[in-house]
Amino acid sequence: MNPDTLNDLKKTAFKVREHIIRMSTDGGCFIGASLSCADLIVFLYKEFLNVNKDNLNDPNRDYLFLSKGHDVPALYGTFAEIGFIEKDRLKNHLKTNDFIYWHPNRNIPGIEFHSGSLGHSLGVAIGVAMDCKMKKQTNKIVVILGDGELDEGSIWEAALVAGAKKLDNLIAVVDRNHFQANIATEKLIPLNPIADKFEAFGWKVRSCNGHDFEDMGKAFSDFPIEAGKPSVVIAETRRGKGLPSIEARADRWFVNFTGEEVEMLMKELHGEEEAKLTSETIVAR
Amino acid sequence: MNFNFESPELKETRQGFADALVDAGKENDNIVVLGGDVSGSVKTNLFRDAYPDRFISVGVAEQDMMGTAAGLALAGKIPVASAYGEFATGRPFDQIRQSIAYSEMNVKICASHCGITVGPDGATHQSFEDVAIMRVLPNMNVITPCDYNQTYRAVRLAIDTVGPFYIRFYREKSPNFTDMNAPFEFGKADILAEGSDVTLVASGLIVWEALVASEKLKKEGISARVLNMHTIKPIDKEALVKCAKETGLIITCEDHQWQCGLFGAVAEVLALHQPTKMDYIAIDDTFGESGIIASQLMSKFNIDSEAIYRKVKKHLKK
Questions:
Q1: pTM score, two decimals?
Q2: CATH H-level superfamily of B10-175
Q3: Most buried residue, A69, A176, B60, B131, by CB count within 10 Å?
Q4: What DSSP string runs through B115-174?
């Protein structure tokens, strides 16, 4: 990867993390999942998808569906950095008269579809992928799935259909951060081996480090992996990535930090002292 | 009388659905039809044979079918998703709620095999709750046509009208009595029989039963108006208020749970705008039962013309 590109991706992802941290107070957000897929989302929008603020309504654009809606702060932050929305608009997070909240809403420019209830977007993406095939378009349809979301039966209905219909314009990306709500995935309903499951449903699988842009660059090239098969990229990530004080912790799913804690987390992100968090763990919201 | 009461042909409403799809598909190549594994039963195989490139079977995967229909609509297609009543509504309810109704996707959900008349299938397949859970959804339009002709017209109308639709019809043959040339307007109820003592507000298969009951009552000097409420949402408030003012007593007639279906919809309007004495002919908060002779089931569950006759007589002792 070109060093300037790499540098730019790192800088953007850093800013996106700052935005996410700012959204973790005054009502809070699902910070763990947002930080785990921040690098992925920045990479996809800046390096992979043919979508920009000028072609958001072009039927030939690439589509990205965020199926696991909780990580939407990473999307808001990315959209602010690439100009889909004004940076100022992020201050409206959880305000009554805007659509910036805990789940993706298609009234935000760049958000392709409503999400919130899990396990829906893969089926929706299949519909768009089928339409693109019928029109002989070559655009890519990408769906980000949470690993915990793979518990939903509708994901596997859709996975079976996508394989059967040979939708090789469809790319699922699993944000494999190893946690769902308040527990490690493998301690609840074990998902491994994920790759074998998708293979068995007629998909081709790649893996990458979801925090290493060069590795993502390699994984997200030459699609489809095999003609006539949908692709899935399993991105190994860490919940809460970038903030050592909350990284890979089961109790940092949803957070609502104090203003002071946000300041500490900002310092931590900038490599200064580690944050001393005193907010209670929120296991239900 | 703008319908054939004397000798109507018996025809399947699902055939009306299938014929409408084939005809609409000829005129508009944006229409795509999604089926589960029941394309023979719901007769979408006719569309499949005519336009194989525009027919999509997803297997027995109703949740995916509704999501995929939403995606096709997002991309600009007019998807028609079809299955049996319960499996087109209850099974994929969350997909319909989030990805079709809330997302305002132009998807037409067409359910065959509704109501009690799928007797051999028994209670699991007898959908009496589908209208309730569809009409409660914001943005959803709900039509319950009464015969072959009206099912044909409802499907054509839904395809030509932007927005999510739910259309409910049946497996069994039933009298095809409405006139293809009679007015059929979305959201406008039709008076099929004039009357002044009571209004029978009927929908779907039970419209015919209401007409038969009305004829029988006429011979006894009771004048029962029959209002065909083919559009349940948006409901025709004006017609309901007018009927309530003119006849007083309103009896709704449907093959659906009495709660939250036609009775619920009518009661909501009249409670607000014209409080009126009401009663219902409907499934009475119970699940269905098996039986191969539909008329016997309709009789057992008190939703046939005789039950309507008795109900009216109970209220109007002349």
A1: 0.96
A2: Thiamin diphosphate (ThDP)-binding fold, Pyr/PP domains (3.40.50.970)
A3: B131
A4: STT-GGG-TTT--SSHHHHHHTSTT-EEE---SHHHHHHHHHHHHHS-S-EEEE--SSEE
